[in-house]
Amino acid sequence: MPPPANTRRAPSPPDGGWGWVVVFGAFVSIGFAYAFPKGVAIFFKEIQDFFGTSYSEVAWISSIILATTYGAGPISSILVNRYGSRPVVMLGGLLCGIGMVSAAFCTSIMQLYICVGFITGLGLALNLQPSVIMIGKYFLKRRPVANGLAMAGSPVMLCTLAPLNQFLFDSFGWRGSFLVLGAILLNCCVAGALFRPIGPGTASVKTQVTEEGKGALKREDTEDAMEMSSPTNLPVKNKTEEERDRDCCEKINQYLDFSLFKHRGFLIYLIGNVLMFLGFFAPIIFLAPYAKHIGFDEYSAAFLLSILAIVDIVARPTTGIIANSKWVRPRIQYFFSFSIAFNGTCHLLCPLASSYTGLVIYSVFFGLAFGMVCAMLFETLMDLVGAARFTSAVGLVTIAECCTILLGPPIGGKLIDTFGDYKYMFIKCGVVMVLAGTFLFIMNYYNYRMLAKEEKERKAKEEDPKTVRTENECRNNWIKETTQDGPELEPLREEQGPKKEVNAVKSH
User: Fold this and answer.
1) CA–CA separation, 178 vs 111, rounded Å?
2) Whole-angstrom distance, CA of residue 346 vs CA of residue 359
């Protein structure tokens, strides 16, 4: 039998061992979650010709996938807390496979919205967040390394899916390609099967603590009932109902802490990111169709996404190292603002690239800027709100970002339909992102100034206790003078006597 001390203490993260297998599973599931909505854009030109739809109507497919993946984050978190990461990821992989296989038999663009957009998007959402949570359970000291390796799945998968999708289309058409992709996405079930729980010790400890807590509550309720000498159990039931209501409120606040809307830094981050996502995903979705539009072959167009992904693989860890340096870390919000503005500048210059060499150069700089933004997207949020409120902040941010994620690509497609040229879509995205970066830079400067001022005032009060004592003395003197001169406060002094008498009567 294990000693009692081991049953009372949960095992610490192993920081290795099976954890590296978990990282591989997260690499696969996170890679599909981030890369698939971008890689499926390879088929947009052919789907548009097949159904006779416009660019904006086809762009809704990726928009719905991305919006569902982001918006279903809180649902994924609730399911993970209820059932664990392994079954949730396996369910997500199954939904992805069902969605893509069903899409192969669709006869209208609306059916593609449902199958590819909602069903596959929900499956990708169930893959994303449980993978990040599982890494946090297996790693503590090496968690940044583990997260970096897992997040590298996004550019690696994009680099692989872009030419693979083009090969599948040439071999089987878009319907056959969706069948094969549905089978490939079922590998998310295999990745989820690798998410072995950390051990029975954790569950036993939680069960034991819960049982001890319930036992303590029962003992307290019994003692209260005995002290009150009540013939009924109504007080105990009322207390239990209050505790249940309080538990429900605590569970809601765990995911949606609405007090964050009073946090100045969080509001700045939220407004800037909501504006940024209006032009963040559209360029990467329309990059391959744009290359086909100006006359390049399908494989050359798909290779542009591969170039972007390769640069992204290098840009993310490099940005993390730079952001973690002692020069950048204290002012990481400025670096994040610069990355967004740099991303927008690349889109503004894209219409000047009329040759394939120009598009390759644009893809390199776009991959660099895209990787910089993605590498700091969540780190800057944690820097603002802290680790304790990070989970709630992510839930609120992803829900708010759904609207602009959903509208960004269709607005870009509408511009293409209206003007018959892709350059207006790139200009729109560039202007929006430059404005978002400028807004974040100015408002973060204001936030840093206000934080420094508040910190200075707090330290001044702590270092000068005489000021606090003088303020208290002035307040006490004012109360005494008002009590002596003001007749309105006389009844307040007289109430103290009757209160004591009433208490004495109650005690008898």
Assistant:
1) 14
2) 11
